[in-house]
Amino acid sequence: MSLDHTSPTSHLGRPMHDELVPSRYPLKVGDIDVLVISDGVLRLPTNVLVATADPAARQAVIDQLMLPPEMLDWPLNVVVVRSGGRTILVDTGAGVNSNLPKAGQLTHRLEAAGIDLADLTDVVLKRLQDSARAVQRAIALFEHSANEA
Hints:
This protein has helices at residues 55-64, 106-112, 131-148, and strands at residues 24-29, 32-45, 71-83, 86-90, 122-124. Helices cover 23% and strands 28% of the residues.
């Protein structure tokens, strides 16, 4: 992963042939390359946001933020970090999930960014409340990649 946008092999920040807009956002922090990659959005009913909150208070916040009243597109992003010879994937997004109409294309998005799953040295799962499913998504991601090879 290079942040040199003049490089002919760099896919960062440029749409691929089947993308309307880039689904990745690169930045450099000192010697560390960081790449935020979108895995799309997850449609959620707004009533699941802070489910224990008073419904009127929740609706007031939704109105104040001008969010849709019924359903919300929740962004699913992952981060790839390169530093010191390591390539680290932080989170697994929706993984490989063809049941989600607007998400679950992580392998495609990583490939479009020029990242080969075989180059990943570490995977960091950050959602402790969903750790079992996150591990399953990580395993499915690598199995999907192995089956395509």
